[in-house]
Give the backbone structure.
Amino acid sequence: MAGNKVYVQGNYVDVHDNEVVNLNIDKVGTLQMDEGTTESDETLLMKLSLCFKDEDTARRFLTSIKELDDTETVRLAKKYSNSGLCTDTSKALWKLLSDAGLYKTGYPNWNKQMNQR
């Protein structure tokens, strides 16, 4: 469909008059440590929502881990998982947190801590 345009403004995408639209978000930016919600926060939140019970739970988790170290972050993820609030603590969740700079330790450490009793 040459000539069709897709307009993106913030987290709004205008795709009208396009028969097929494929969106791919390749990179999540670093989160700002202030009170405001950034566009990067919203992008990460959208992706995190797939790993949690709902968007509100993902938002609470994201807000909670912003100032935690890696050990505390994985401990909180495990707590959410054990209570049924986090439905996917696999490599996907680790990668999202790692790419956003919220978990700096490698996946083997994440996996080991998630599987400890």
